[in-house]
Amino acid sequence: MLLASDYPFLDVFWTMLVFFGWVIWFWLLITVLSDVFRRHDLSGGGKVGWTLFVIFLPLLGVLFYLGSQSKHMAERNAQQVQAAQSHTDEYIRSVAGSGGSAAEIESAKKLLDSGAISQAEFERLKQKALS
C-alpha cells in the first residue's frame, strides 16, 4: 500500500503553490507594515490609517500601498542601505586606527628626529607600541 497513490501530483503541486503563496503574502504584509512604521515623513495618524487599511482590507491595502509608495519605498531602502554602509565604513576606519604600532613608532621616530624626545624616551615608546 503506497501513500503517494492517495495524493496525486496535481494535489501536491496545488498544495505547494498555496503554501508559497501564503509565504509571499506574509512577506509582502511585513514589508509594507515595516515600511509604514519606518517612515519619518508620515504622521502617526497616517501610520494608523495605512495599518488599519492593510489589516481590514488586506489585499487592497497592500496593493494600494505598493502602487502608491513603491518608488518611495525603493528610495528609502537605498538610503537605509547607504547609511548602514557608511556606518560600517566609519566603524572599520575607527577600529583600524591610524596604522597600529608601526604608526606609533613612526611618530615617535619623528619626535626623536626633531629633538622633542630623547633616545631613552624613544625606546620606551617603541617598547610600549610593540607590547
Defining traits:
about 130 residues; mainly alpha; 2 domains; 5 helices; about 0% strand
Question: How does this structure look, described?
Answer:
The chain is an all-alpha fold. The protein has two domains: 7-71, no CATH class; 91-131. The chain contains five helices and no strands. Helix 1 packs antiparallel against helix 2 (44-56), helix 2 (44-56) packs across helix 3 (58-96) and helix 4 runs antiparallel to helix 5. It is elongated. It starts with 8 loop residues before the first helix and ends with a helix. The model has no long low-confidence stretch (mean pLDDT 89).
Largest sheet: none
Distinct helical segment count = 5
Q: Give the beta-strand count.
A: 0
Cα-to-Cα separation, first versus last residue? 74 Å
Briefly say what this structure is.
The chain is mostly helical. The chain is built from five helices and no strands.
Reconstruct the topology from this structure.
Layout: H1 9-38, H2 44-56, H3 58-96, H4 101-114, H5 119-130
